[in-house]
Amino acid sequence: MISGAHAIIHSKDAEAGRKFFRDVLKFPHVDVGEGWLIFALPPAELAVHPARKNGTHELYLMCDDIKAMVRQLEREKVKYSNPSEENWGTLVMVKLPGGGELGLYQPKHPLAPR
User: Fold this and answer.
1) pTM higher than 0.85 for the full model?
2) Distance between CA 86 and CA 107 in Å, rounded?
3) How large is the average pLDDT for residues 1-25?
4) Which domains can be identified in the chain, with CATH numbers?
5) Could you please report the per-residue DSSP string of 36-90?
6) CA geometry: angle 82, 58, 25, nearest 5 deg
7) Is the dihedral of CA 4, 41, 99, 69 positive or negative?
8) Interatomic CA distance for residues 109 and 15, integer angstroms
9) Max alpha carbon distance in the chain (Å)?
10) Which candidate, 29, 32, 23, places its Cα nearest to that of 41?
11) How far is Cα 34 from Cα 79, in angstroms, rounded to an integer?
């Protein structure tokens, strides 16, 4: 039986990425040795979208109040895109310190039962 999921973000600066999740987002974590942190994630959902090719995956974090989350990002001097209104939620793309982006949104869609 499936007991959980493990997501991976590849980064050219993994140390900066770990600090971002630890210090900015305040995710609980465990150090599995030599500063290698594994973070607990909030409850998750999984969607399967149609695509022209297989093998791509995306990770978005959801929040209850995107305006409050953006204020927190600003306090921490994190760069992010202007919020965009989508039919499924209000979205900002967060610039990760090691490169790349992470989607963060306040959903408008019903949430999967927990």
Assistant:
1) yes
2) 9
3) 94
4) 14-42+57-107 (3.10.180.10)
5) -EEE------------SSS-----EEE-S-HHHHHHHHHHTT--BPPPEEETTEE
6) 60
7) positive
8) 34
9) 43
10) 29
11) 28
Structure token digits, residue 64: 């209850």
Q: Write down the residue that tokens 């990002």 correspond to.
A: 73
Pairing mode of beta strands 37-39, 89-95 = unpaired
Amino acid in the structure at residue 97 = P
Q: If you average pLDDT over residues 81-100, what whole number do you get?
A: 95
Q: What is the C-alpha to C-alpha distance for residues 45 and 29, in angstroms, rounded to an integer?
A: 20
- Rounded to whole angstroms, the Cα distance separating 61 from 81 reads 15
Determine the 3-state secondary structure of 13 from DSSP: coil
**Structure tokens of 16?**
């900066």
Mention every residue, 6+ apart, whose C-beta is less than 8 A from residue 43: 114
Within 13 Å and on the Cβ side, how many CA atoms surround 21?
A: 23
Average confidence score pLDDT of the chain: 94
Complete edge-to-edge strand list for the sheet that includes strand 101-107 = 60-62, 101-107, 89-95, 84-86
Structure tokens at 3: 């007991």
